[in-house]
Design brief:
The protein is mainly alpha-helical. About 70% of the residues lie in helices and about 0% in strands.
Length: about 325
């Protein structure tokens, strides 16, 4: 059993001055540890979206009527605020769990050897998005769940999922320049799919802002349009995304693409079908809360897999320095 090394005063000062460098100098995580840390941050970014949806669907959006405190006189929820206060305050506490997951990802990426600046930048990008969204979440409460701020809150959460997905993918590949695995036409088709998915998510926030689930039992402002009309537009966009996904899978099959892009595209297609079933059932059953919650989870999974399909169309091997071999050395000698 190894003894605990003595920490000198200089070590303590170094730890205070730059704790990440201090940890990196004394810990080298396994590559799978870095991957798991990035995956944990991604999972928590989805959890915070789903639990935030639960706050709205249970009418607990103003369970804590102010921010950053829960009430004017209490940092935490009180018994007088009931279940709505507990749900809203619980979602606020999950933000700290998300921060811990992102912090672990940053520390693991910073401590990995060799050091990969691209990973730490993606980790810090997540941190600043979380901080920005926490402030925006407070603004959402202070303006009484204004639907436009609620939509911005969700879109910023989607940006967090985007960066977390990119970091998770980058932990599983090298730092060499990306090499495409398919032709330009297939890449363009994929970008059409990505753009359509972004529009689909954006219109989904309008459906939410105009729909019946305002987030609180009190009179909350809604987007002044017919939500059923926007919901039908949302369904049309969903069918466009499904069609583009099937077309991409068909083209990848035709050009004999590698297994990874085919598998990711097939998985995305299945997620979209499941999301479509939930969407139609919730529409014709007048938006029961549980189905809306599953639809929000499906939206997160759909976007993650769309990004995974995009990233699977190229590869990034490890960067390796080319050392001169015997043949090269002899050629240099003769020259």
């Amino acid at each position: 059993m190894r003894g605990v090394p003595n920490v000198t005063r200089a070590d303590a000062l170094a730890a205070v001055r730059n704790p990440l460098d201090f940890i990196a100098a004394r810990w080298t995580p396994e590559p799978r540890t870095v991957r798991r840390a990035a995956l944990a941050a991604l999972v928590m970014s989805v959890v915070i979206v789903v639990t935030g949806g639960a706050v709205r669907l249970t009418g607990s959006g103003l369970g804590c009527p102010t921010w950053p405190q829960c009430t004017d006189h209490s940092l935490t929820t009180t018994s007088a605020m009931g279940v709505h206060g507990a749900i809203e305050f619980g979602n606020r506490m999950l933000t700290y769990v998300l921060c811990a997951a992102v912090g672990w990802a940053i520390i693991a990426a910073r401590s990995e050897k060799p050091f990969r600046r691209s990973l730490t930048r993606l980790g810090w990008a997540q941190f600043w998005i979380v901080m920005s969204n926490a402030v925006l979440g407070g603004i959402v409460v202070l303006v009484g769940l204004n639907p436009y701020t609620v939509a911005a809150h969700f879109l910023l959460s989607t940006a967090l999922i985007t960066v977390a997905t990119l970091m998770w993918q980058r932990t599983r590949e090298g730092d060499a320049a990306p090499r495409p695995l398919v032709g330009k036409a297939v890449q363009q088709l994929m970008w059409f799919l990505v753009v359509a998915s972004v529009v689909l998510i954006g219109v989904g926030t309008v459906v939410t802002g105009a729909g019946p689930h305002a987030g609180d039992s009190r009179d909350v402002e809604r987007i002044p349009i017919d939500w059923e009309t926007v919901a039908k537009l949302h369904a049309v966009l969903a069918w466009i995304v499904v069609t583009l996904t099937f077309a991409l899978w068909f083209v990848l099959k035709a050009v004999d693409a590698p297994k990874a892009p085919l598998s990711r595209t097939r998985e995305l297609f299945l997620i979209l079908l499941g999301q479509g079933v939930i969407g139609y059932v919730q529409y014709f059953t007048h938006l029961p809360e549980i189905l809306v919650g599953f639809h929000m989870l499906g939206s997160c999974l759909m976007w993650i897999w769309a990004l995974r399909v995009l990233l699977s169309l190229r590869e990034r091997p490890d960067e390796t320095a080319e050392l001169p071999g015997p043949a090269t050395e002899s050629a240099l000698t003769t020259a």
